[in-house]
From TrEMBL:
Domain F-box residues, every copy: 10-50
Species the sequence originates in: Acer yangbiense
Signal peptide: none
Lineage, broadest ranks: Eukaryota, Viridiplantae, Streptophyta, Embryophyta, Tracheophyta
PANTHER family for the chain: TRANSMEMBRANE PROTEIN (PTHR33127)
Database matches in InterPro entries: F-box-like_dom_sf (IPR036047), F-box_dom (IPR001810), KIB1-4_b-propeller (IPR005174)
Protein name in UniProt: F-box domain-containing protein
Gene3D superfamilies: 1.20.1280.50
Amino acid sequence: MKKQEWQSYLSNDIVRLIMEKLHWKDKFVSSLVCKSWKQVLDEIQEQDIEEYLPWVMCFDWDKKSDDGGNTFNFKLCDPNKQKSYNIVKEHPERHLFLDAKLHASRCGWLLFSKHIYDHNIIFFFYSPFTNQIIKFPELEDCDYGGGKASFSLDPTFQDCMVIFLSTDLEKLIIKTCCIGDKFRKIFDFNREYVGRLILDVAYAGEFFYCLFSDKRLGAFNIKQQEWKVFPGHLPDYSDSLCVALNGDVIIPYKLLSSSSNFSNFHLQRQFLRFDSSEEKLINEDYEVMEKQVMFLGCKYFLGCKYLVGSPTSFLVPAAGNARESAGKVFNFNCYTPRIACCSFMFNSFSSGPAEVYDWILEDDKLPKIWIHPPKAPEDVEGHLNNPSQIPQFCAS
């Protein structure tokens, strides 16, 4: 068959489907075949380059090796290429991850804390894509158990700030740190915070928002170095998490709804947005939320002694490779290893398969966490397949 003949059997739609699954170098080589294939590549570049879907990390920090030793073992799952990378490595800093507490994910980085001794803890960032670790100085005199933390920017930037909030029977303590600085106490507030637990911390705009167990919301302004608790309480059925959206913070909650004849009741998800300019909570329009995709982590991993505290949760825009998941919620199931999916307009029985993540093996018993997409996803595969940077990587 002549070159012109077999090209004619492949429509541009089929060529596009093939090209979208190729690495950038292979895309470029394919585009040289003919003019129409070059046009397909140009369309792909213009329309759908950015990756918004988070990766999934399955992990075991204390896996037994064949020789009886301990190894650093985890698997990274790329939803864009539907490809996983198995990593087995004796990392020199492996001890850091044992019993470490995960707090947040941003730009491909994870923020952990680990109890050292007495009331001292250490914070560190880890990028599973590049194998980098960034440590902070020890943080002294902290109530580690109930503390929550988050961070503002990519930790490779000097302006990246980490905030740690904790409560005890008498006070709320806030400490912040920028890369290269020592932790410094910012706020020590007595009496009013007796008995409150911190449920979640999220960064949005210029604020770190803090959600308390008594359904109150507070915020720390990083520029003005001010702390404030806002009036009013959240609904009783609000989720114990808050996520950022366009500079504000979103708090999901569930509303009991019924059919027209009251024969059927179900829980419907609603969304409160805290408007930072007006300093008040408002119901967010579904038209706005349906242009987002929500990823929720399971609060508890059964049988897992390596992850303590809440895993990562966040919103991503329904753009790029997340476009077809618009208006959906993906979450880890606490009782089975599968990832579930439902729409924002869900009822309590509407959960279904996770679609873009259903290729991840359901029989994988390792704990799983969402990782916010890396800042430059086009460079990730090069790092993962480069043994000089991270030994013993293999794609499966």
